[in-house]
Amino acid sequence: MSITSSSSGPKKGVVRIQKQDDQMTRRIEITETMSTGKFYKKVIHAFHLHNPKEYGVYRGRNKTILIKPSGGKTLGTYKIKNGDMLFMFPVDEDLEGEWEDGEEGDDQTTVTSPLSPLSPGSNSGQNSSLQQQQAIVVEEEDLGPEAPDLTRLTMQDRAYLPFNDFLEDLAESNPSQQYPLETIRFCANVGCSQHETYPNNKCKKCNPSEICIEKQPYRHVDNIMFENQFVVERFVRTWRKTGFQRVGYMYGSYREHETIPNGVRAVVSAIYEPPQVCGASSIELLDDAKDNQVQLLANQLGLVRVGWIFTDLMQERENVIKCTRGKGEGSLLSVEECIMAADLQNRYPAACDKHKDGVFGSKFITVCVTGDTSNQIHFEAMQTSDQCAALVRDELITPMPGSPELAWIQESSDAAPLPDLYFVATGQDGIERKYNARPLPVDYLLVSVPAEFPLTQEFTFKVHDRKPFPIENRDDMCEVQDLETLNKYLCQFTNEEFLSAVSDFHLLIYFASMEQVPLWSNMNTLVDCVKNQDQDLADQWVQTSQWQQLLDLLNGLSLESNEVQPATSAIGPPPSDIQLPAPAPIIVLNEESLPLLQDDISPPKPANQSQYDTQSPATINSAQPTINNDSQKLRAT
Question: What are the start-end ranges of the H helices in 301-394?
Fold first, then answer.
């Protein structure tokens, strides 16, 4: 699924070349303005040709159009575009043409096949274990049957170290270092203090000869838990109503994990939906003028932005959700989604006293709502690795056209010198080998995080048997936040229920951004009422001039509309043929899916009410909730 923001990076093209005498295939990065001479230089290095004049590259398999090397002609002249398949054949006579002389270091910038290991000669000797692995690698021409299929390299279930345990191990191995963590770099460190200014001089520390892209052994967050099912139910219901996908930011807190020593758990209390243009298979995020205000409000409530969540749901037939990720038809994240996730992680770094800058990595989590193998709604949570975040930070990674599960890493240049990048994978013969990281399977850049619901649901914000206040930025779905909907919402509560009525994250966001009555300047007290569930403080706040001014405005609306009647609840009783799931000790969403969400399921009463909720939520009834019309309503009479 395509998720984009208002800005996008430059697009790069890739072509595939198949060598007909041994059926080897290579991918090579191109541009339309690239000369055919420079293109042939890349071909020579990609296939390790000893005599570059022995082969020619053709547009078609039947050798109809020969691409001749020239310094004056470009690939655009031959109408070669991104995604094309080209064919290389031996030529009877030496191919004549103009090969552009490559600059020094060209041998390090070639694009080689993902199915061929790096040449043993490229090993710098820094990793003896990898040298031992190379010793048993057969010749390149014999690798075809044993090479791994990169499109089938999926994320294996594996154990991760909590980041705090990783730091302890790092400190034990580097007892004399105050800051054992260093910033991950792929480009040369031009500010290295060990020698003269780069590139007049360089060392292996600032410009290593090769770097291994590896699966991260630790994770910054060991678990993510939604306080209750209603946090995500209203979010997912958007797709059920419109068929369009949706993006939201998750707000909550980080806690010490109860069962994982040194582990960290993220707890989600609310989901904020930013302005966006949604479609059945794409989402475009728009600029959000209220973003800073929302984050300030959340911080006052004791919440932080812990991650983002998006839907990628496709219904095959009624009550059957298509499985398209993970063990379905693709990776957990596409490269495009991975890049966006890494960019968000870079915006929210995690504090760390083992790095001289005081920050390292991120606790920001990505959650994808999709279908599982049992065709139910399922939640996949993950982070990108710290290496991936560094690649995105330096703008070195782009998606492979036509292959969403493969990433393409920028080649080395004078402006951005890069070392050789490789990854280690097990071939079909069971032997581990080094492979060029161009392209790179996206699953090498992901870290899986379990997602859960608790047995005893928590409620930082109230869940009522009344019609909830609309969620922000849903005007295109006819869910509008305005004075009329506010009036209808408040009509459902009595004055004694004021604190319960305003304990709604989306309502507080509306209050904070109101233009008709400026409540933001007096929001601190109201936020404290909600945060601490302080009834006495709430009774004082309703006497403020700002609140009375708002009630007068709502009274005017009521008189104009002949006294708006209280709205009946949109959350009715469950149909007789639907059984609500019984609580389990822990519902692990990565293993057992959330049941298909129903639009008309009322909130069940949890086994034990959370410390955040002083009033029990409504129980499930077989009849609509009744409202005492004689009681005093929250709005002024």
Answer: 335-347, 386-393
Contacts with 453 (C-beta within 8 Å, 6 or more apart), sequence order = 225, 226, 228, 229, 586, 587, 589, 594
ω into residue 439 within 30 of 0, thus cis?
A: yes
Residues 6+ apart with CB under 8 A from 351: 358, 359
Q: Map residue 420 onto helix, strand or coil.
A: strand
Interatomic CA distance for residues 262 and 115, integer angstroms: 40
Query: Which pLDDT value is given to residue 335?
Result: 92
Task: Please say whether the beta carbons of 247 and 308 come within 8 A.
Answer: yes
**φ/ψ (deg, to 5) at 321:** -100, 130
For the stretch 4-35, pLDDT in tens is: 665 444 345 778 888 877 667 777 888 878 88
Q: Where are the alpha helices (DSSP H) in 364-497?
A: 386-393, 483-490
Torsion, Cα 230 235 240 244, to 10 degrees, reads -170
Tell me the pLDDT tens digit for each residue of 200-244.
555 556 666 678 899 999 999 999 999 999 999 999 998 988 989
C-alpha 541/C-alpha 529 separation (Å) is 9
Residue recorded with tokens 């995500």: 232
Those residues whose C-beta lies under 8 Å from the C-beta of residue 290, and which sit 6 or more positions away, are 472, 509, 513
Cross-strand bridge partners of residue 441: 406
CA distance 290 to 473: 11
Residue 592, sorted as left (phi over 0), alpha (psi -120 to 50) or beta, turns out to be beta
How many other CB atoms are found less than 10 A from the CB of residue 43? 25
The string of pLDDT tens digits covering residues 351-376 is 999 999 999 999 999 999 998 888 88
**Residue spans of alpha helices (H) in 400-534:** 483-490, 498-502, 505-513, 523-532
For the four alpha carbons of 305, 5, 385 and 205, in that order, the dihedral sign comes to negative
Q: What is the mean pLDDT of residues 51-72?
A: 83
Q: How many residues does the chain have?
A: 637
Q: What does the alpha-carbon distance between residue 123 and residue 440 come to, in Å, rounded to a whole number?
A: 19
